[in-house]
Design a protein that fits this description.
It is a single chain. With 483 residues, the protein is an alpha/beta fold. It has helices at 39-57, 73-82, 86-103, 119-131, 175-178, 216-226, 240-253, 285-288, 294-302, 316-338, 343-348, 356-363, 368-388, 391-407, 429-450, 454-466; strands at residues 4-7, 12-15, 23-28, 61-66, 135-137, 143-145, 187-192, 210-212, 229-236, 258-265, 268-270, 273-274, 310-311, 469-474, 477-482. The strands form five sheets. It has a four-stranded parallel β-sheet, sandwiched between helices. The longest helix is centred in the C-terminal third of the chain and has 23 residues, at 316-338.
Amino acid sequence: MALHLYDSKSAHLQRFTPVVDGHVGLYLCGATVQGSPHVGHLRSALAFDTLIRWLMRSGYTVTYVRNVTDIDDKILAKSAQAGQQWWAWAYRYEQEFAAAYRTLGLLQPTYEPRATGHIPEQIALAQRLIDRGHAYSDGNGNVYFDVRSLPDYGSLTRQRLDDMRCTEDDAQIEAHVEAGKRDPRDFALWKAAKDTEPETASWDSPWGKGRPGWHLECSAMSHRYLGETFDIHGGGIDLRFPHHENEQAQSHGAGWDFARLWVHNAWVTTKGEKMSKSLGNVLSLEALTADYAPPVVRWALSTVHHRSAIEWGPDTLPEAAKAWEKFAGFVDRSIEASGEVPREEVEALRADQLPGAFRQALDDDLNVAGGLAVIHDYLKQGNAALAAGDGQAVRTTQLLVRAMLDVMGLDPASPQWRGNSGVTTGLGKQDAALAALVEAAIADRAAARGAKDWARADELRDRLAAAGVVVEDGRDGARWHLA
């Protein structure tokens, strides 16, 4: 089965056929660096990280572009309220996002362009749209896209233009900008400078000093790094309208084919509501990793299908911690029993060398839940091989389990997670407390066995088993893992 991805534009699964054989061009809408990252922001980056890893396993070379929006209305407003320079404010949070990406083990993008680093390209695109009859200046320094000039406007989200009230994001609507529009559904490509904003937040243009509208940067930067036609455009489902619809309109108006496939991920929700700063229900990565190891957070965000919402509740991280401990514990035990498979061998294993059921699941719109079911089956086989003392089977299973987990960025023995794989190292506070209690009970049991107090030793083992802790005796002492 070849890779199929759900295309949001057609609302169908589409067979993936790259524009250039063997190569994938992917553009992901990245962070608007107005504040600290939370798990709702990181969900999108993690979903596409898994896709990129699978594409690379499948033999593709990937050019991955993830932009940084480092100037917009919210950045200007928040920095002004804090009495800081807007560019310093943006840079601070850009660095926080970068640190969060590193903490969760995300692959680096090929290019990570900033909006402010591509002002000439954005001015050139706005002028191109004016020249092609798809945009106009109001004579006061603002430039608008004429949505009625483009026959396929609304095709991405399958809407009729006449049914739309507006094509701007609510946060971008300003009275002085709206005033110059021929149609209220037109959207801003270039905004005239305002006296209330810093002079450094505007650039010279043919229409006077100003700055780009929200949507223009992504069309300009995807064209700069991926060309007129590329394979996949990604982002959160909340960006489909108006942002992605307007991106497509700009690019089509410029005469470019733009994205072949549109892939969108669903939200992280709490009590059924989208996680957002405005609702006050956000969860910061810093707070979560104070109690749980980073791979546990990654597990919680990476092992749900990208088009399904993640309902974040009190059991989300404890359940992820149990799952992570099972797999990490097996990898630790397999390394102890039969030696560590070198990381180079794990990375070299191609998609067509992985179990067929796993390949089918990932090729079916990146079905990570189906892929995890396969890994669970191999975990059982690995544990059986450990119990039987079959070193070769243990080593083979270690290789396959680690390679499949690595597709999700979760190989416990990878350099990223080494030290977070053992049951007593790199854990959060709750896990560390559990580990300390279990280790103390195991030490008491070892002392009882040494004194030939078999009744006491059995009592301790049974007590641990009743609490869901499995104790396995070996030549080098007892090991434990959760049932």
